[in-house]
Please model this.
Amino acid sequence: MAEELNNEIEVTEIHNKEQFEEEVVQHLNNPVTDLKPIVKEYLTSVKSVKKEGNKFYFSDGEATVEVRIVSDEIIRVRLAPHGVFLADFSYAVEQVDKKVSTFKLEDTTDAYLISTNTITCKVSKADFLISFVDNITGLVTSADASPMHWEENAEFGGYYVYATKQCQAEENFFGLGDKSGNMNLRGRKFQNWNTDAYSYGWDQDPLYRTIPFYMGINQGETYGVFFDNTFKSYFDFGMEDNSKTSFWADGGELQYYYIHGPHMMDVVKRYQSLTGTHQLPPKWAIGYHQCRWSYYPESKVREIVDGFRSQNIPCDAIYLDIDYMDGYRCFTWNKKYFPDPKKMIKELADVGMKTVVMIDPGIKVDDNYWVFKEGKENNYFCRRSDDYFMEGHVWPGRCQFPDFTNPTVREWWGGLYKELVDMGVAGFWNDMNEPAVFGSGTFPNDVRHNYDGYRGSHRKAHNVYGMQMVRSTYEGLKKLQRNKRPFTITRAGYAGMQRYASVWTGDNVATWEHLKIANIQCQRMSISGVPFCGTDIGGFSGEPDGELFTRWIQLGVFSPFMRAHSAGDTREREPWSFGEPFTSINRKFIELRYKLMPYIYSVFWEHHRYGFPILRPLAMLEQENIANHYRQDEFTFGDKILVCPVLEQGASSRRVYLPKGKWYNYWTLELLNGENEYVVDTPLDTMPLFVRAGSVMPEYPVMQYVGEKHIDEVWLNVYYADYEVNSFMYEDHGDTFAYEQDIYLEKKFNVKGDANSFNIEQTIEGLYTPTYELYDFRIIALPFKVAKVFVDDKEVVDFIINERGILRFKSNKNFSRINIVKG
Model:
């Protein structure tokens, strides 16, 4: 009787015989019509274990769990409900195994312990619960609340897969990438299904991208979980049950990576070691960009470019949205609007303005259209289960869509950019690639995909479609542009998309609430492995006033991707559109972006080479301070500049929190102690910025575009500290891959001061030779009267102290040691 009921009763949490018998009695007292089929099955007790290299296979007699030692700090867990794993393939992780020192398996009375030098994975024998322990502190950082479980999917085959973890009373959660709402994820539930979310709102979900990676801070230690599953997935951070955190998916495998800290920075860097970092962009790509849907005809484009140059407002790129095409057909030009695009692009380039164009995935069904004809002849377009082509309406009308999960299709698509590259187009913007379809929203579930030979329906491929589109774009451009770095943007993507493209946060709204969302979104994307992120400055839809646009420009200076963008049914919003005083303030802050270019570029290199996030929220800076888990409107850009944007209309002041250490007000040079809150004045022409004491901050002269001026010398602003501080500057050609052959410079500055002296040491690595010869030093806030300055033991006789008390002198760019001595 019990066996028969086991096939009829809906069981949600049955882990032992006593609980099962209780459920049986309960259902025997109910009418038979209440009985439902069981939908969930759980791991039971561990019956066997075997080792194969760095993999351990545990079985309960039916299901199998693989525990794989990826590195000393990363362990992967996979579940095969009936003992058969799917092919080990991932678009997110190109190479699973990293460097591991040593590991061992210990068989104890109640558990199997798999240990590296850093962490231990404990598999409980009786109930198959898995937990992770810090070997140094003994803290259980993450632990199952119930065994991993699954449901058969009768309609599609495969399984719904589930993991449920314990959620501690003061545990907080961060990550998941493209989500609006508060930075801290605790008490909320999310869905991952790439969606065209036009004019999305606070806490709206899902949005454009899927990044199934989160971090938990548990008793002062951070760990990460990367649930590498491309199906529609879900995360619950204690919403349904405050004591549990869950993640699950509509198909695929229950496969996740546990990533140990103990600091949030450690977890992010290790996650990036799995999914990759952003390629170093061309330097012009981190300048200011201007966009609109749409700038046309050619005379309008020239008017906008002339406006930047006549107003002396720096700008590196102008964008052409879909109206530059012939009937919205990709890889074509509307010759009525742009009769000679090659000539126009060259003349724009002559005044330092790069051209970026949009490319969508929808290809118009038209036998006279060469792209459609090639795709049709070569069977490159997606088909549905009954072999009909997947067709849907987007901007050109009835369209078919390339299967970007097919490597042959990616190769073809990448080659389609040749004519645009030959014309001089500098960057490419892949839009509508969730994929978005008018009416239905996206593709039907039964669309088939090649999935690099591993096959799958759209349920499996949906969340990676945009990523594989921009991958084909990036890889094609890398071939076509030879030694030039591609610049690409994507609206949709999956974990690992940062290897191929920058992103923006989609079609936002011109409101103060969206300014707040923008601030949090870019921080969240940065700590989720996608750092080259920005927002539509001013809001895509709606009408900002001058104050909102100016405050957004100020935030945009410290967004890794800085672009203004707006919808065609709104008033134009160039930096001068609102008149004075807004034009002058916008110019001031865009110029600040270009002055800080060597610092910003160095921060990008630190991300690319070492995996550091570009934007770092306060929770990352001081995770041990639980109050910082809820402070979300401040962040550092790199590790030297603290940014405190003004997010309230009409604000004349704001409260700021300074992390531990000492900080200088960027504008006034006032020195303040960290771990304190301050009220700072915020007139419209300023935004609170603070520089960490001891920093060496390089600056360029203001340029109207990257590379406009020959640099004769670099300013080095050095902020006094009475303790040791390291700073960093990176230099290379700015647009080639020569850095891969060590043609670059990494300059490290070590600063240390006391009451009687101040010392600066420089070490240099790499083979690049910059064009300038001199540093122009500005030593800020020395606490003593200067008697002598020595550069490599040679006295400098022509130093000066200006009216702000700043010491100024020049040195050779290759100095080793500077010593400033009290009088």
